[in-house]
């Protein structure tokens, strides 16, 4: 293993309770999905290692809890991150309404230094959709964020979303190579799961 | 010619036949019949001639035969020579065959030996590597194997075994030394904040399992490097920050944020450190979410075990240096904040991280221990003195403290930490009770004013507590205190003094100077005066009770209490045992009248 070319990025996942933050991570890390809901307590920590050409990219993921009582912990993790993924549930209008204030919190802490990604999750439940993709798109443009719709359940767009984030970060860091768009990202996972349950 | 030949040789037999040839009479007659006159002579002559020829020929034959016999004899001799030769040869051949067989055996023996030797060499050839790579480690493993095999060899072939072992040890030591030096060099890369562990490094550490001294030396080296690396990193995080984040100390004016940031940094550092150590210890397959809850023994390297304790103790050592830094800062913050609400918010955060870090760190680790010591510091929040105001309003200190308590309880309601109990207890012990004690401490107020003052404070406290579901017990406590204050009427009326004295004296009371007939008489006369003005007096004095409900309650309860005590007093005065003279004349109002005066019906 070469010790050169290792890039590390801290990423924080934000969003209201039960929008699917933990599910997105578990889809990314283990390609698994669980229908039952287990609220995140405090903060969870994961490390996802990806290989981009000869560069190793480590995404340190902080999975925050949507529950109100843990709010006071979150700013610290926002501050330490390069990427903030704000998730809402497309079947839950109010989770979308809150995106604005999440992004505002992020910008308050980090200004424009942080890459913001807005994710409309649970697209597999299209029949109960309450938020249209156009609305998400529009909001993202307004907030200078990347927008995507995903489903942690079917896995749709999940890998693609993380891939896009990594590519963007990589291109920022290293001048764009001609081949960069053809680079294969291999997902190899190592992690230290830290369940900060109380 | 030998008889032997005559009998067996066909030629001899023919000759014999001819020799014995006889002409029978018929033939002779026939011959006589021959028309010629002298045929007989002719024939006889012919016959003689024939016989002569025959004889001559026979002689030749005989000679030949003799020759032949000679030859045959020679041949016979030759043959028996051949025969004996053959016999000799036969004997020799057997020997050759035997030898061949022996040789064959020897040859397969040799082949076997050869293959054994080949195998032996394959097993026991000691090789060195000069570069640290995958082959190096494979070779090192092989050397270790040779060691095991040589030990086995010692049983049968002590000399060879010893020789190999001696050689082997030298080479192994060389290789280990080389690896050790390499590892020491590699350790330098561990000076970074979050270093990466190469697979070679992991392999090296695995190899050192067979050299516990080297292993421990490496671990010590790693620990000391990591200790200072982490201290440096923490210092940077505190005072320098990163490209993307300001230093933590930049926010020192916001204690909650400051302490939260410090602990979050520590948390993160511990996780990264744990991840690094799992590479160092070669812990594989920790990709599961539950990885942090390590199995007791997760790897065995032929006899060497990596236990959770081992990793945790190294993790503890590596992070040890952070503890005093963190302690110093948070402690300073706590000292500054003693007596304020923020201390509770900070305690809450500390408690949260303490629980979180307990999942990663050894319970006895330096970090956890110092967090524990910080957790217990709540400080004395009640160094304030309470100055009653003219209005008998709850003073600002009370309002302030209660607003702190309110904040604490609000945060308790959305608490991050499961045990509210301890904080609730803390609040009682550290805030509420001292506050109440302070209220009850002596001041210049008249007893009644003091009572009203207390009631006002209790009322204020209760108003805050009723906002929270979990304060029932506290509320009851305060209520009890409130009602205790209500019997101040007794005091005001002057009866309290008498009752208290009676309850602490021996009967008969009339002999007690303070309870003499004349004293009782004067006091009761005064009481009458009080009772006449009581309604006015009550409303005048109790208007300063902030709660109308309480004021009413106060009057009501006070009156009931008053009547109760009064009737007890009356019964005592009337009791002959107390030897009051003309007791009935002392009592100007009977109980019923008092009740009426207090308009209790
Ligand atoms: N149908 C569907 N359900 C989903 C999807 N993602 C998550 N869920 C479900 O939504 C529930 C909540 O998911 P979580 O991932 O635990 O939500 P969270 O955002 O981590 O919640 P908190 O930890 O409380 O903040 C679970 O029951 C999931 O099974 C999705 O893409 N489709
Ligand atoms: Mg979650």
UniProtKB/TrEMBL annotation, chain A:
**Which CDD domains does the record associate with it?**
Rab6
**Matches recorded under PROSITE patterns:** RAB, RAS, RHO
> What Gene3D superfamilies does the annotation carry?
P-loop containing nucleotide triphosphate hydrolases
Give start-end of the signal peptide: none
Keyword presence, Signal: no
One Gene Ontology molecular-function label: GTPase activity
Q: Which UniProt keywords apply?
A: GTP-binding, Nucleotide-binding
What InterPro entries is this protein classified in? P-loop_NTPase, Rab, Small_GTP-bd, Small_GTPase
NCBIfam families, per database record: small_GTP (TIGR00231)
Q: What is this protein called?
A: Ras- protein Rab-6B
Origin species, per record, is Boothiomyces macroporosus
TrEMBL record, chain B:
Q: Where is the Conserved oligomeric complex COG6 N-terminal domain?
A: 40-128
Gene, per the UniProt record: COG6
Kindly give the SMART domains that the UniProt entry links to this protein. Answer: COG6
Q: Which domain of life is it from?
A: Eukaryota
Outline the extent of the Conserved Oligomeric Golgi complex subunit 6 C-terminal domain: 158-598
Question: What are the record keywords, sorted?
Answer: Golgi apparatus, Membrane, Protein transport, Transport
Q: How does it sit in the membrane?
A: Peripheral membrane protein
Keyword Protein transport in annotation: yes
Q: Which family does it belong to?
A: Belongs to the COG6 family.
Q: Which InterPro entries match?
A: COG6, COG6_C, COG6_N
Q: Where is this region: Disordered?
A: 379-398
Question: What is the protein named?
Answer: Conserved oligomeric Golgi complex subunit 6
Coarse class of the protein's main subcellular location = Golgi
Compartments annotated for it: namely:
Golgi apparatus membrane
Which Pfam family name is an example for this entry?
COG6_N
Q: Which PANTHER family match?
A: COMPONENT OF OLIGOMERIC GOLGI COMPLEX 6, CONSERVED OLIGOMERIC GOLGI COMPLEX SUBUNIT 6
**Gene Ontology BP annotations:** intra-Golgi vesicle-mediated transport; protein transport
The organism's lineage?
Eukaryota, Fungi, Fungi incertae sedis, Chytridiomycota, Chytridiomycota incertae sedis
Q: Main role?
A: Acts as component of the peripheral membrane COG complex that is involved in intra-Golgi protein trafficking. COG is located at the cis-Golgi, and regulates tethering of retrograde intra-Golgi vesicles and possibly a number of other membrane trafficking events. Acts as a component of the peripheral membrane COG complex that is involved in intra-Golgi protein trafficking. COG is located at the cis-Golgi, and regulates tethering of retrograde intra-Golgi vesicles and possibly a number of other membrane trafficking events.
UniProt subunit comment = Component of the conserved oligomeric Golgi complex.
User: GO cellular component terms?
Assistant: Golgi membrane; Golgi transport complex
């Amino acid at each position: 293993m070469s010790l050169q070319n290792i890039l590390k990025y801290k990423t924080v996942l934000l969003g209201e309770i039960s929008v699917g933050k933990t599910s997105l991570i578990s889809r990314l890390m283990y390609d698994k999905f669980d229908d039952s809901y287990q609220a995140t307590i405090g903060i969870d920590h994961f490390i996802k290692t990806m290989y981009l050409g000869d560069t190793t990219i480590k995404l340190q993921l902080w999975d925050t809890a949507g529950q109100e009582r843990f709010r006071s912990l979150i700013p610290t993790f926002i501050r330490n991150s390069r990427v903030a993924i704000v998730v809402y549930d497309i079947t839950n209008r109010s989770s979308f309404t809150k995106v604005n204030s999440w992004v505002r919190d992020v910008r308050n802490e980090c200004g424009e230094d942080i890459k913001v990604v807005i994710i409309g999750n649970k697209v597999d439940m299209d029949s109960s959709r309450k938020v249209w993709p156009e609305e998400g798109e529009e909001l993202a443009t307004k907030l200078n964020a990347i927008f995507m719709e995903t489903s942690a359940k079917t896995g749709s767009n999940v890998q693609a979303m993380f891939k896009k984030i990594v590519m963007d970060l990589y291109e920022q860091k290293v001048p764009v190579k001609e081949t960069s768009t053809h680079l294969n990202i291999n997902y190899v996972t190592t992690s230290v799961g830290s369940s900060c349950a109380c | 010619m030998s008889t032997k030949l005559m009998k067996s040789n066909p030629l001899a037999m023919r000759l014999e036949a001819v020799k014995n040839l006889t002409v029978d009479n018929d033939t002779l007659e026939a011959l006589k019949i021959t028309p010629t006159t002298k045929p007989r002579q002719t024939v006889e002559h012919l016959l003689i001639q024939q016989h002569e020829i025959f004889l001559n020929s026979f002689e030749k034959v005989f000679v030949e035969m003799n020759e032949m016999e000679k030859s045959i004899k020679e041949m016979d001799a030759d043959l028996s020579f051949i025969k004996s030769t053959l016999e000799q040869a036969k004997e020799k051949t057997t020997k050759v065959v035997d030898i061949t067989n022996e040789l064959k055996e020897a040859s397969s023996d040799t082949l076997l030996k050869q293959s054994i030797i080949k195998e032996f060499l394959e097993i026991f050839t000691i090789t060195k590597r000069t570069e640290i790579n995958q082959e190096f480690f494979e070779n090192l493993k092989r050397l270790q194997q040779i060691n095991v095999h040589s030990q086995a060899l010692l049983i049968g072939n002590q000399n060879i075994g010893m020789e190999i072992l001696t050689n082997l040890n030298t080479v192994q030591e060389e290789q280990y030394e080389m690896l050790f030096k390499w590892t020491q060099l590699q350790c330098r890369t561990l000076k970074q904040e979050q270093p990466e562990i190469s697979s070679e490094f992991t392999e090296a550490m695995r190899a050192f399992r067979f050299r516990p001294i080297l292993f421990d030396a490496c671990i010590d080296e790693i620990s000391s490097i990591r200790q200072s690396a982490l201290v440096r990193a923490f210092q940077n995080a505190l005072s320098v920050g990163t490209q993307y984040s300001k230093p933590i100390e930049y926010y020192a004016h916001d204690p909650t944020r400051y302490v939260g940031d410090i602990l979050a940094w520590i948390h993160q550092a511990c996780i990264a450190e744990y991840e690094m150590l799992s590479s160092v210890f070669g812990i594989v397959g920790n990709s599961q979410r539950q990885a942090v809850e390590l199995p007791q023994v997760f790897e065995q390297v032929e006899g060497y075990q990596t236990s959770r304790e081992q990793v945790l103790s190294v993790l503890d050592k590596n992070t040890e240096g952070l503890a005093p830094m963190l302690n110093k800062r948070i402690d300073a913050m706590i000292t500054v904040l003693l007596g304020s609400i923020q201390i509770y918010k900070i305690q809450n955060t500390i408690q949260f991280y303490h629980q979180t870090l307990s999942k990663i760190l050894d319970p006895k680790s330096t970090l956890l221990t110092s967090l524990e010591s910080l957790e217990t510091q709540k400080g004395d929040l009640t160094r304030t003195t309470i100055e009653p105001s003219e209005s008998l309003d709850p003073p600002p200190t009370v309002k302030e403290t209660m607003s702190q308590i309110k904040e604490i309880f609000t945060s308790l309601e959305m608490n991050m930490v499961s045990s509210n109990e301890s904080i609730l207890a803390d609040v009682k012990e550290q805030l509420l009770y001292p506050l109440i004690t302070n209220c009850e401490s002596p001041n210049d107020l008249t007893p009644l004013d003091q009572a009203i003052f207390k009631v006002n404070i209790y009322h204020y406290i209760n108003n805050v507590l009723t906002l929270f579901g979990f304060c029932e017990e506290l509320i009851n406590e305060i209520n009890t205190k409130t009602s205790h204050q209500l019997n101040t009427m007794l005091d005001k009326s002057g009866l309290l003094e008498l009752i208290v004295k009676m309850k602490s004296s021996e009967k008969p009371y009339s002999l007690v100077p303070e309870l003499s007939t004349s004293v009782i008489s004067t006091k009761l006369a005064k009481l009458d005066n009080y009772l006449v003005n009581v309604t006015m007096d009550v409303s005048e004095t109790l208007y300063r009770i902030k709660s109308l409900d309480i004021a009413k309650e106060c009057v009501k309860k006070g009156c009931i209490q008053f009547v109760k005590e009064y009737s007890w007093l009356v019964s005592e005065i009337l009791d002959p045992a107390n030897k009051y003279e003309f007791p009935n004349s002392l009592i100007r109002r009977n109980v019923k009248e008092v009740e009426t005066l207090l308009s209790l019906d």
